[in-house]
Design goal:
CATH class of the largest domain: Mainly Beta
Low-confidence stretches: 145-150, 195-209, 492-496
Structural class: alpha+beta
Helix content: 40-55%
CATH topology of the largest domain: PH-domain like
Shape: globular
CATH superfamily of the largest domain: Pleckstrin-homology domain (PH domain)/Phosphotyrosine-binding domain (PTB)
Radius of gyration: 29 Å
Number of domains: 3
Strand order of the largest sheet: 7-6-5-11-10-9-8
Distance between the termini: 25 Å
Largest sheet: 7 strands, antiparallel
Number of helices: 16
Mean pLDDT: 78
Length: 496
């Protein structure tokens, strides 16, 4: 095996670091420029501030790039970085859990990519190399992660992308983007656009569609008499028609922005599978490519947003040790028919099988699930109400928290056998079932309060092998008759 000599990230990474830093300050920079346009005094101060920012960004970006070096030997990866204090890490190659590449639109043009090497018990290793060097590096050092051509694949259709974009989460992302920018622009440009409080003479001149419709109704209302006349007068007097049109347009644009975000993420979504690994690619401009060894996958998640449930769909994620703190779940099927889950697992993840949840909380435990959800918010709303009395109206949100407690109870469950431990959960947005390979289950535990003892129920929990300090999963208020059989599932094991 050839060994990589000590080297830096690709030199273009300097420009990208500069761009990435400046991008973070784009919003305040635009704000400063607009403020200057509105009040063009002391022009030299703005010029000096911009010059200082640019020089600082260039200098720090270059020195940070220069201070980072890495080299790869037959047995380890050695990384040295730090601008003011030097930090050296040496990671054995045997600790590698997965590798993935990603590139932005700018890096794609330059034919370079980020190479991320995920390890257990440490931060991800991050290189920026040409695509040619990355391919050579994979062949020399990580050939065991990808040793044969891909045999099976999975990709999304346009219909799938449209279905995913209907998720309220994506709609609210679009809503937040357009609301933030519209609010900012209206506030900064209100003097130039004369967006002041409307007068009676111009109240129907802001939008052509609402103007025509309103004038038509005004012209006809004198001739129209009947039971709907008070309603028409109310609509005209309060600008309900005009505001409704604005609201509909606003919501429509929010959906379009959400759809664009989904399209940019999933348009190139593709899954390749062979005997040893799974390769997952997604993203149009900011493209990512993950290579995950199958023997490093500890669990799968079967997630079902409620609107997925109406149409019989689910989405699948895999959990891989070492994928990175806060990012342990990776989508492998963003949308899939529920009846095709078993076939999908047999094709791409034959070590896993879909499991039905057998142990469910008793009906008598429902008040406890709701109570656990309410106990904090009731006290919090009371505290806020005493600070400012109108906040007592927050108690109007209690039905949502009651619904959350009910859904927690409805979808809670646990099942286990000689191969898998499965736990299910639910919240206001989706239900989720997580299936763990038994070899990754480290500790089994049960807990019972004096109230649970009188109800003959207890909490069942287990801890799994993870790079996190604590990774425990608990299902509450299950029948205590399962306790003996559950604890008998404990046994010593070794990790692959």
């Amino acid at each position: 095996m050839n060994v990589m000599v000590k080297r830096h990230d690709h030199i273009i990474e300097i420009l990208y670091r500069m761009f990435a830093v400046l991008k973070k300050f784009l919003f305040p920079f635009v704000l400063a420029v607009v403020s200057y346009i509105r009040n063009p005094t002391q022009e030299w101060i703005l010029g000096v501030a911009v010059l200082v920012i640019i020089l600082s960004v260039v200098t720090i970006s270059f020195l940070t790039w220069k201070s980072k070096t890495f080299e790869i030997t037959n047995h380890s990866i050695r990384i040295s970085e730090g601008l003011f204090s030097k930090k050296i890490n040496e990671i054995p190659l045997t600790n590698i859990q997965s590798i993935n590449t990603s590139h932005s639109f700018f890096k794609k043009i330059c034919d370079i990519s980020n190479l991320n090497i995920e390890v257990i018990g440490g931060e991800p290793i991050f290189f920026v190399l040409s695509n040619k060097d990355i391919l050579l590096l994979k062949e020399q050092l990580f050939h065991d992660l990808k040793t044969e051509s891909n045999e099976k694949n999975f990709l999304l259709t346009t219909k799938d992308i449209l279905f995913i974009s209907c998720n309220p989460i994506h709609f609210f992302k679009g809503f937040s983007i357009i609301f933030g920018w519209v609010t900012f622009l209206l506030y900064q440009l209100k003097d130039y656009l004369n967006l002041k409080e409307k007068t009676k003479e111009t109240e129907f001149d802001l939008h052509v569609l609402s103007n025509g419709l309103t004038k038509e109704l005004k012209a006809s209302k004198e001739e129209f008499t009947g039971p709907l006349e008070p309603l028409i007068q109310f609509l005209l007097h309060n600008n309900v028609i005009e505001n409704s049109i604005y609201l509909i347009l606003f919501l429509f644009v929010s959906y379009l922005i959400g759809f664009v975000l989904v399209f940019l993420k999933y348009r190139s979504f593709f899954v390749d599978t062979n005997q040893h690994e799974i390769s997952i690619r997604f993203g149009v401009f900011n493209q990512k490519l993950y290579h995950v060894p199958k023997n490093k996958i500890r669990s799968i998640q079967i997630i079902q947003p409620y609107y997925f449930k109406w149409f019989g769909y689910v989405k699948l994620k895999i959990e891989n040790i070492g994928l990175g703190l806060g990012n342990t779940a990776l989508e492998i099927a963003p949308v899939l028919k529920e009846k095709e889950v078993e076939t999908f697992l047999h094709t791409h993840l034959p070590d896993f099988k879909n499991q039905d949840v057998m142990c469910k909380p008793t009906f008598h435990s429902l008040p406890f699930y709701i109570g656990r959800t309410l106990r904090v918010v009731v006290v919090l709303f009371a505290f806020l109400g005493f600070i400012w009395q109108p906040l007592f109206y927050l108690y109007g949100l209690l039905p949502f928290f009651i619904a959350k407690g009910y859904l927690n109870w409805k979808y809670a469950g646990l099942t286990y056998n000689e191969h898998f431990f499965t736990i299910s959960k639910g919240n206001l947005f989706h239900s989720k079932k997580v299936i763990f390979l038994k070899k990754y289950v480290e500790v089994l535990e049960t807990e019972q309060s004096f109230i649970q003892k009188r109800m003959n129920v207890l909490d069942y929990g287990f801890s799994v092998y993870s790079e996190h300090i604590v990774d425990t999963h608990t299902c509450r208020d299950l029948d205590e008759k399962e306790k003996i059989m559950y604890l008998l599932m404990r046994k010593e094991k070794t990790h692959a």
